[in-house]
């Protein structure tokens, strides 16, 4: 794989090995154009997210931010969380295109009252789809783990 993971210097050392291992384990989800992923740590998020991801395909990089909430997750929950963020990388452009189109059509258009409703619904459905994929990938991995010779 060709992704370069760069951890911020202040990334907690007790988390570094675990997060780096998970990112390498699921690196196959990262599209080839994504050459660099900056990994950073921030405190708890207000909305309870374990992590988030920002991607700039035009510049070939992503930023994954691990939040304090991640520490409260089980080992399986951490795997789902990392896979969720990596699934965002190849799918976020579809979401961004749709969100930009909603802005174009509704923000200052004839139906501004629909703007926030559509944007909120779009994000909710997108996140749910990403989470569904992440959970199915982990369920599949768990189902074949005994045949691959490793135990969770
Ligand atoms: Zn997400």
Which properties best describe this structure?
four-stranded mixed β-sheet, 4 strands, 152 residues, 3 helices, 14% strand, binds zinc ion, alpha/beta, 53% helix
Structure description:
The protein has 152 residues and is α/β, with parallel strands linked by helices. It has one domain. The longest helix is centred in the C-terminal third of the chain and has 34 residues. The two termini are 23 Å apart. The mean pLDDT is 92. Zinc ion (ZN) binds next to α2 and α3.
List the secondary-structure elements in sequence, H or E.
EHEEEHH
Radius of gyration: 17 Å
Shape: globular
Strand ordering within the main sheet = 1-2-4-3
Q: What fraction strand?
A: 5-15%
- In terms of quaternary structure, the protein is single chain
Which regions are unreliable across 5 or more consecutive residues at pLDDT < 50?
A: none
* Ligand set: zinc ion
The overall average pLDDT, rounded, is: 92
Number of domains in the coordinates? 1
Overall number of strands: 4
The portion of residues assigned to helices is 40-55%
Termini separation comes to: 23 Å
Structural class: alpha/beta
Separate helix tally: 3
């Amino acid at each position: 794989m060709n992704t370069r993971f760069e951890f911020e210097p202040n990334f907690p050392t007790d988390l570094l090995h675990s997060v780096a291992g998970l990112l390498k384990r699921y690196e196959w989800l990262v599209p080839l154009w994504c050459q660099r992923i900056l990994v950073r740590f921030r405190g708890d998020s207000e909305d309870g997210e374990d992590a988030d991801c920002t991607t700039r395909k035009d510049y070939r990089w992503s930023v994954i931010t691990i939040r304090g909430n991640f520490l409260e997750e089980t080992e399986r929950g951490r795997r789902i969380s990392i896979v969720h963020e990596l699934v965002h990388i190849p799918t976020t452009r579809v979401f961004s295109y749709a969100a930009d189109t909603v802005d174009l059509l509704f923000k200052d258009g004839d139906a501004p009252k629909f703007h926030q409703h559509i944007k909120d619904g779009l994000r909710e459905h997108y996140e749910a789809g990403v989470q569904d994929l992440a959970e199915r990938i982990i369920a599949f991995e768990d189902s074949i783990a005994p045949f691959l010779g490793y135990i969770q």
